[in-house]
Design brief:
The complex is a heterodimer of chains A (about 375) and B (about 70). By secondary structure, chain A is α+β, with helices and mostly antiparallel strands. Chain A has 14 helices and 10 strands. A 4-stranded antiparallel β-sheet of chain A has the order 2-1-10-9. In chain A, strands 5-6-7-8 form a 4-stranded antiparallel β-sheet. In chain A, strands 3-4 form a two-stranded parallel sheet. Chain A is globular. The two termini of chain A are about 15 Å apart. Chain B is of the alpha+beta class and about 70 residues long. The longest helix of chain B has 13 residues. Chain B is globular and about 35 Å long. Classes of the chains: A alpha+beta (about 375), B alpha+beta (about 70).
């Protein structure tokens, strides 16, 4: 919940689901990945793969390069779906344009084909699922083509995107311009990128409450596409302004995702490394909004403890960039501007807004569906 | 974390939408992602969109799992 009081200062608390352990406790390890995906289907493959990696770590199974490569390709496909959702549903709604459900359907069909190509004989979340090494190029290429069609004439270099955003008549260019006008560059610094994964695992293992407001030494961090960029590109986008820079980074992410779908194993690829810290086994999976981390403990192959932290929990930190940007809006800012801020941060949470008094708004994020 | 809730279709509406029942309340959701639906189908619903289909047994199992972690649909 975000309350905007007199003067427009925002105060945020989150009621999101952060604790899955009761649903997993005493389950056989092999059941856990599918159960996690069933409960959390929004980025369901990422949730399931993070859990599967944690299970394999707990069972001391080595990472198999072909399986990990296929998983990474599937994660890219699921990330593409989230990006298509933004372009087809979220952003048109901000601009008074109709949604484009046909794009969503095309993305869903492409993702389903990718899964069948990579795992023709089994469920990707089975411990023993045989993977078809090297397959999936055609299905991944079709998803990449779809992303490129949506991106239109967006440049494929970060340094060219600012000029494009200034001159282009594309709806996404107009979105960046609107973000820059609503909150100019002076409105506030971006949060630092979230810590590296082993550090997140250490903090999650040490503190059961970490997932509710994750941080680095008390400071909020950003997990998303802006933070995934090299520092030079991140600074260039951040100079657009706290909202425009985030929209630009999300758009650029479409280009990078398409590139990586076509040619996995490029600059961004890194071999998946097992993590085991402080007696916890860990799994990680990349999503469109940032890395997802799960840790678990097993006893006799059954789950005895489970913790996780998702990108949205970083975004909803009560002192984070989302809160600061909401606070930076004028007290009488229209709801459309609040929606623009939310879309720039892109938390994966349903949001409702209600005016309490002329000078005070209440904004609720919950899981009410 | 972002969960979705199984909901039973109670009416098929125009423009790729359907009415579903969620804990006794009726809501209209988009079915654009899952294609044609029929009354009695179970859908996984998130922020007004059906993300996928489940059978009745899976819907019940998912609701039980959500209940165990304190989530009321």
């Amino acid at each position: 919940v975000v309350r905007r009081g007199i003067g427009g200062r925002a105060c945020l608390t989150s009621g999101r689901l952060t604790r899955l352990e009761p649903a997993l406790r005493q389950r056989h390890a092999s059941e856990a990945p599918r159960l996690v995906r069933r409960i959390l289907p929004v980025c369901g493959w990422a949730q399931g793969i993070a859990c599967l990696r944690a299970v394999e770590d707990a069972l001391s199974r080595p990472a198999i390069p072909a399986a990990e490569a296929a998983r990474d390709r599937l994660l890219l496909g699921e990330s593409a779906m989230v990006q298509i959702w933004r372009a087809a549903i979220d952003w048109p709604a901000l601009q008074g344009l109709p949604p484009a459900p046909s794009l969503l359907r095309a993305g869903r069909t492409g993702l389903d084909r990718l899964v069948r190509a990579l795992w023709p004989l089994g469920d990707p979340l089975d411990l023993e699922a045989p993977v078809e090494a090297g397959s999936g190029a055609t299905a991944a290429g079709a998803l990449a083509d779809l992303l490129d069609d949506i991106a239109g004439d967006l440049p494929d270099r970060p340094e060219a995107i600012r000029d494009w955003a200034i001159r282009a008549d594309h709806p996404f260019a107009r979105l960046i311009r609107r973000g820059a006008k609503t909150l100019p560059a002076a409105a506030g610094a971006q949060d630092e990128p979230m810590p590296r994964i082993p550090e997140v695992v250490r903090r999650l293992a040490a503190d059961p409450g970490f997932c509710r407001a994750p941080h680095r030494s008390g400071e909020p961090c950003d997990p998303g596409p802006l933070s995934a960029l090299p520092a030079r590109d991140r600074d260039a986008f951040a100079a657009f302004g706290p909202l425009a820079g985030r929209f630009a980074a999300m758009l650029f992410q479409m280009r990078r995702t398409a590139e990586r779908l076509r040619a996995p194993g490029g600059d961004d690829a890194r071999p998946y490394a097992r993590l085991r810290i402080s007696g916890w086994s860990a799994g990680c999976a990349d999503t469109a909004r940032g890395p997802l981390v799960q840790i678990m403990r097993l006893s006799e192959d059954r789950v005895t403890a489970f913790r996780s932290v998702a990108p949205t929990e970083w975004l909803l930190h009560p002192l984070g960039g989302l809160t600061r940007c909401l606070s930076a809006l004028p007290p009488d800012a229209p709801e459309a501007d609040l929606r623009l801020v939310l879309a720039a941060f892109d938390p994966c949470a349903p949001v409702t807004l209600a005016a309490l008094r002329a000078e005070q708004l209440i904004l609720a994020t919950g899981e009410t569906n | 974390m972002c969960h979705a809730v199984p909901a039973r279709v109670t009416a098929v509406l125009p423009d790729e939408t359907a009415q579903v029942e969620l804990s006794g309340a009726r809501k209209t959701v988009s079915t654009a992602l899952v294609g044609p639906v029929e009354v009695g189908d179970y859908l996984l619903v998130h922020v007004g969109y059906a993300l996928g289909r489940v059978d009745e047994a899976e819907a019940a199992a998912t609701l039980a799992s959500l209940d165990s972690i304190g989530v009321a649909p």
